Automatic annotation (TrEMBL), chains A, B, C, D:
Binds 2 magnesium ions per subunit. Signal peptide: none annotated. This is Xylose isomerase. GO terms for molecular function: xylose isomerase activity. It is found in: Cytoplasm. Its EC number is 5.3.1.5. Homotetramer. It comes from Aliisedimentitalea scapharcae.
Length: 431, 431, 431, 431
């Protein structure tokens, strides 16, 4: 046991409490035949919670964690603290990038040895922990070698480095029983079109993703391959802009049955969408997978990765998740970072606890709305004409036939109220 | 002859002049073996130039044109003035929505009769005019019947109305020898997900577009079918968000060989892209068609549709057009509107003339950059590794093989300068 | 009685109901010694609810209200319906622009006669209604004569027209016992700096506002003069950008003791601020007056003026209102418009009812947070150093003295956690 | 001599050249009686060019400059390289933050000793260099002690540390003959209102700025005190949001005659303004001082600090500078950073050279437009009514009098064209 969280006890479900406890999240509460833990499938992100130093473009590290540094001993202390936090929060899942968990070596081989040693260390810890691996991923964006891209780099050696790295991370994810493997391409984009061969880079990215899918099948990994869309930052423009863009990309490279989406609230907002839009679209296209439940600030134009705190917004997101059938391999990951002024260990615990509560409230409201059924009844009623005999055949017709019908049998269709405010009021009865 | 432009003479090419004249656009100047007119293929939009009254969300009509009103005589006066402007500007093309050119009738049939009469009136005028039809399109968004969508309306009767309208507009475009037919779906989106069946509406939109393509072939229309992406406004969210979104849509509905993009600078900006990004992406996907060269204000979050005035920006756009092989059926349409304070007839002429000059400057700079070749040499040199033997085979390999190579034959790839500022300086030698 | 709301009964407070009723707003419930109605002071905006036809930049009127038209009889029918709605909703206040309530005449004099007749009609209706006038204002932006500004117009005649209009509106507000008079300068800005004399226009605007203040005193109007900031739209740039900008303007023209702010959530968002920021800033500068509680869509870059529907956000706003001492002459006005698809009379009622409920929830949460006191204790504790002896004298010192102290008595101040997530969790216990 | 720029020669003015040279900037060319160098007064920012490592929120250092590190020897090597670059570019000015030029010590005293030693080193170098100090400033935002603000910190000890730092920086600026002293308050704002006492923090900021002004007079510094507005980033909200906000702040604290603005293009854009708006506003308020000529990307929501590359935009900025009378103590500073992929020494030189050329083009165009006079004639003509007898007396009148005149002597003012497109065409004749 480290002493990092020394004054903090495991969090209990204590609805009325003002202490550090869950007021809404009760993992064992059964909703629609399933425990809340199994619905929400919370994950902690190693990345922001244990690896991020608190820097921003105008300031350096603020956190000064005892495990910051480049040795294997420190990497193991970091792992110890992480699993202590997983226990305090009683979360079923965690996630990592390779670079979060091991020190960078002087060569690919040394980085790989460091990584594999930590993966084994995780393996041992996971034998006595309830916390499982939601997903692993490769950090192909922080080191300067990736500054011009990983798979989309103008230098094929960096493609090779990236491919070898993804292989190692997929192997490790498989070994630890991970439920998904994620790819986020923060540098798979460009800073200026003037030096970019867009077509070539998209081909490289497509082939890289095919390779990951092929390798999944080769090693018998049963989890899902997830792509996480983001429109920009750090790149000026990223090829995985949003769900619709990635869908076209998957279709182009024949991958639409193989790859699902890991959708982040903050990335949706950066792309000009609501979170629920991205969820509904992925669901309608059959590519919904998992979520990162971290919001951006609506007044900031960059990725602030804040813990969620607005229950009505979260309810609308879980409503789409539930309509999509809920999570299978996916879950609710917090790719959230503390504000850089939140220095204390208790801040880290409280931030997650508050977020889990907000999600639990949102989820329960979403479930109640769906159970109530009014929203779906009203939605279906709006489209009822399409379920009539005439509606059904219309889509099989053609312009000339329809035009002839309109000519011979004049229509004068009248608009009907869209009922937006009434629907919003209905939502407000549940959130 | 109307007297609307009574004090204005046809515009001459007069490079040094401070008068109302072209200083850069010289239609007969030959560049790379083609007349400038045939490269740029300018089009005037009936919509903004003759139909828009100058209103905005906080104010009513400002323009008080003598042809405003609902009679056929006024519609013909509008056509007379329009063709007089085409002559003054010596533009090779114009474009229309059905609703721009004819009064709305009390029924579909009456609207259609009005429309067909004006199409015939156009046909007569075009016999003595050089100005041809770049494209026609149907306005399926202004009338209140379309408030909840056209093809994507919850009411199948409105789908039928829309289909019959598109048929009529395609017939008219074909009859007038139009070179393209455009679909822009301003209401094909939603105001709130709460009342929207996203999946159903996308299916309706997909089928509608298929019907248009089928009808094109049925009537032997040889022009291109163009879709014009826009992310939002008037809808909160539009299904044709941007080029990448439409590409996925075309793949889903098997239309990628049948439909091309009409890309508007302002819509690109609203979607979070640069104009040149959208052009380069469409070109790399093989779906580039035509452009609307009207900019949005970078400080305004809505569609301002201003005439272009920044030659360096325009140069980057034409650079992508030229790299895509230039226009075939497409052209440079100004879907631009006068500022609502620009009341006078001369404002309408001067706005187009200035825009044509800005485009001519941009085009000439783009051509010179391509001719010079430095930009493309530097771009190609950056990716040279991929043209080597090792680079070529890499994409045919797989993760395990690549990882084994990295292990047996260690690499340490070093980043190389992306040269952005130097490339921007090169551009500045030409613009 | 008109029959516009014929099937709708006055709304009751019925917490558990799924019907058209208040579930949270109970006007007579006493909180902190004051009735909820007297805390919240709801107002209905004539403008959006009765005068707006449902148009947008791409579409025409959708609402087709029976009172639309230009006659005095229709204006009176509109007033009848409005007061019927005030009664159904049991709201204590309403607001108007002159142009909302009377038909435009062919001359200033005729418009004024129309206006005065309606004001008298209002006066009669108000004798038997509980609904009072929160504020009146002049519409100096819709008519084409104001296209280049009202007070800031390049044409002094339009300044004169505007001044005479404001006089009439202030007289009418005074006559009806209005509690405030509002100025919003939607056209007091510019479309392009190229034709604008910024300095001159700001002087005109300053003098105009002084005239309004002088006239208030001349006629003995005891209400507040309120300015409503907005950054842009319809203008590209408006002189009353935000609270901080208006504060500087008031200081420049010696008006900071005379004018307060009417702050709108949507305008705050357009200006890049949170609503609570604008409220807190106005309060700290002593210029807080009233609010317009209509939100903008976070994904749309224009003024969507939607009814509020997010209770946690609304709670943070009322928290600032309560910290500022609550409303005096001000209130909670809904400058909200129905979505243009919400065609039915019941939509109008339900939209207001839902918004009033959201406000009531937010207000009660805000009051509970303030009562609880934890947030303010934590805030005060954070600044406790400034209340120590050393802290107090520091601001009276000077750079040289402080530098000498730092040299002679070295310090090494350590950062302390800002506790953002914990504070957000506290808020979530109440919302 | 270091060998950092070993292959690069001093840049010559060589208009037709494709080499590394100036094609537009000719320092000795006389325009309106003054050398171009004396008009433009270019400055190089030590901060971005020599201290920034090339990191971003998702990636670490890319540049690996030989002077990176924490020793005084490296700090001197950095100074040597910087002055070599000043010579190559032949720039008349440079700027620094204290933290750019000296290693942080273990105490305030040690940091101060390091700083003073480098200042002396600069002093020696400046004896043989033409490059003078445009301004100095204190970095009160990067170190973790400033994470919650400098002057506005909840901890008075950090106020004291900041005050002592500013004293040292003002002393050094004075000693080196600096022409201005700048304050930018990147952390003078907040992350969340929940932990912020806005009123108290603004008082602290106001007093801090007063202290700086008082100290300027005490030591006889003749340069200007400049405040650099920015709306946000790194703070969620910064108190110095924009020019209008700072003006109100100066009025509140009695500083409007003492402090001027240092306006940055990118900050203007982040605040929702055009650069020329901020310049015109500062000029009209009498507080224009200096500029940072670095642009933001219009598609990115954060501070990208790119070198300027769009001559027409730059021309509009210098037009406002010239209308304000040109620079006195101020100048054109490039607070620009290389893209993090621009690794090579030549990138640093080329970026500045290209930017200087763009500014020279813009400046010459601005001067020509002003000389031509058409724009100003048209602007003045637009307001001519205000220079008539009636216009002049109108502002001295009052609402009642004006209303009486409008009643007795009816007016019907007609809108006149704002001529925006024609004005834009005129600009395009010069840029």
């Amino acid at each position: 046991m480290t002493d990092f969280f020394k004054d903090i006890s495991p969090l209990a479900y204590a609805p009325g409490s003002a202490d550090l406890a869950f007021r809404h999240y009760n993992p064992d509460e059964v909703i629609a035949g399933k425990r809340m833990e199994d619905h929400l499938r919370f994950g902690v992100a190693y990345w922001h919670s244990f690896a991020w130093p608190g820097g921003d473009p105008f300031g350096a590290e603020t956190f000064q964690r005892p495990w910051f540094g480049d040795t294997m001993d420190l990497a193991k202390m970091k792992a110890d603290v992480a699993f202590e936090m997983f226990d305090l929060l009683n979360v079923p899942f965690f996630c990592w990038h390779d670079a979060d968990i091991r020190p960078e070596g002087d060569s690919f081989a040394e980085s790989l040895r460091n990584f594999e040693e930590i993966i084994d260390y995780f393996g041992t810890k996971m034998q006595t922990s309830k916390t499982k691996l939601l997903w692993g991923t490769a950090n192909l964006f922080s080191h300067r070698r990736f500054m011009s891209g990983a798979a989309t780099n103008p230098d094929p050696e960096i493609f090779a480095w990236s491919a070898a790295t993804v292989k190692a991370c997929m192997d490790a994810t498989h070994k630890l029983g991970g439920e998904n493997y994620v790819l986020w391409g923060g540098r798979e984009g460009y800073e200026t079109l003037l030096n970019t061969d867009l077509k070539r880079e998209r081909q490289q990215a497509g082939r890289f993703l095919q390779m990951a899918v092929e390798y999944k099948h080769k090693i018998g990994f049963k989890g899902a391959i997830l792509v996480e869309p983001k429109p920009q930052e750090p790149s000026k423009h990223q090829y995985d802009f949003d769900v619709a863009t990635v869908y076209g990309f998957l279709k182009e490279f024949g991958l639409e049955g193989e790859v699902q989406m890991n959708i982040e609230q903050g990335h949706a907002i950066l792309a000009g969408h609501s979170f629920e839009h991205e969820l509904a679209l992925a669901s309608s296209l059959g590519i919904f997978g998992s979520i990162d439940m971290n919001r951006n600030d609506y007044q900031s134009g960059w990725d602030t990765d804040q813990f969620p705190n607005n229950a009505p917004e979260v309810a609308l997101a879980y409503y789409e998740v539930l309509k999509a059938g809920g999570f299978t391999t996916g879950g609710t990951n917090f790719d959230s970072k503390l504000r850089r002024q939140s220095l204390d260990p208790v801040d880290l615990i409280a931030a997650h606890a508050g977020a889990m509560d907000v999600c639990a409230r949102g989820f329960k409201a979403a479930h109640a709305m769906l159970e109530d059924g009014t929203l779906e009844e009203m939605r279906n009623a709006r489209y009822a004409g399409w379920d009539s005999a005439g509606g059904k055949t219309l889509l099989d017709s053609d312009l000339a036939t329809i035009a002839a019908q309109v000519a011979s049998d004049p229509i004068d269709p009248q608009p009907r109220s869209g009922r937006q405010e009434i629907l919003e009021n209905i939502v407000n009865r549940f959130v």
